[in-house]
């Protein structure tokens, strides 16, 4: 008599104590995945860890052919992009002085290795802006290198690279404070009411945001909160603004800075209208130029 079939596998969780409804494509056959081409939001990183799926997050750029670092199965540090590849050097330097920063201090990430380009084709001026005589490539990314520890759970984390946004995306408020908008934008995107968001506020006293709302979800939320009648088909601009502002307050409460005034726009950011790159990243400068007058009116 053949042996009985094995029992179905338990839902994939970190400790099987909190089963989750995982789609079939993420079932027991799926052991690990690799993320690249864009930032991996921390809440997504934490989600995959919670369900027991290994995500090896990597980092690179076209000028580095295109991989610089990647997390390994044996050292998969949450929130990082792992250790540099073999024969690849990474250093973090001060934005103004170009001095090397100690581990744990944030600055501009520079890379040197066999995968780094020789230069931009027939464009020596552009090459000189990002590549020095010693072969160090200025990535334009902000980050820091984790310090080494001799013992404890962090002893394997030394040398991993942690990214915190793009240097050119940094918003400098009129108070002199530097703000990395990616932290706020990633937190805000966890709201089902927000389809897209871009944080603004350069040279202003406080931050603002350009928001593309998910109007269908916003209407459902408004009905649930009894803001509108159950048979309402749309929200007023004032009601939508107040609802989104409250969503931002909730979801970004743990961020270093909070968003003040918001501009609601109906047109999504897309590749076709020039507001997103082919890799689905928002063109910050293009959005700010498109809505320059409306953004300025937020601060009047």
Automatic annotation (TrEMBL):
GO terms for molecular function: long-chain fatty acid [acyl-carrier-protein] ligase activity. Keywords: Ligase. SUPFAM superfamilies: Acetyl-CoA synthetase-like. GO terms for biological process: fatty acid elongation. It holds the Pfam family AMP-binding_C_3. Residues 34-121 form the AMP-dependent synthetase/ligase domain. GO terms for cellular component: chloroplast. Its EC number is 6.2.1.20. The keyword Ion transport does not apply. PANTHER family: ACYL-ACTIVATING ENZYME 16, CHLOROPLASTIC-RELATED (PTHR43813). This is Long-chain-fatty-acid--[acyl-carrier-protein] ligase. It comes from Opuntia streptacantha (Prickly pear cactus).
